[in-house]
């Protein structure tokens, strides 16, 4: 049985790392032996647009409600001003 090559990194105490090295590398997986790097392109920037669609609909509803509330407030104010006179 063949012994797997060991990681060439050193611990803080100065002893060599006891983990086996990743195939084709001199370091173990914890010390950088395996890694593909960052993904190509900016995949984190992908969006589905669902949130924006929902918020756009809500803004339309809220703007309509705001107009109704403002109209009701104006009507109440005119009624109150007539009652005071």
Question: What topology does this entry show?
Answer:
Elements: H1 50-84
Protein model, in words:
There is one protein chain. Helices cover 41% and strands 0% of the residues. It folds into 2 domains: 34 residues, no CATH class; 37 residues. By secondary structure, it is mainly alpha-helical. The mean pLDDT is 84.
**What is the structural class?**
mainly alpha
Radius of gyration: 34 Å
Order of helices and strands: H
Number of domains: 2
Strand content: under 5%
Helix content: 40-55%
Mean pLDDT: 84
How would a textbook summarize the main sheet?
none
Number of extended strands: 0
Shape: rod-shaped
Number of continuous helical runs: 1
Distance between the termini: 106 Å
InterPro entries: Putative_zinc-bd
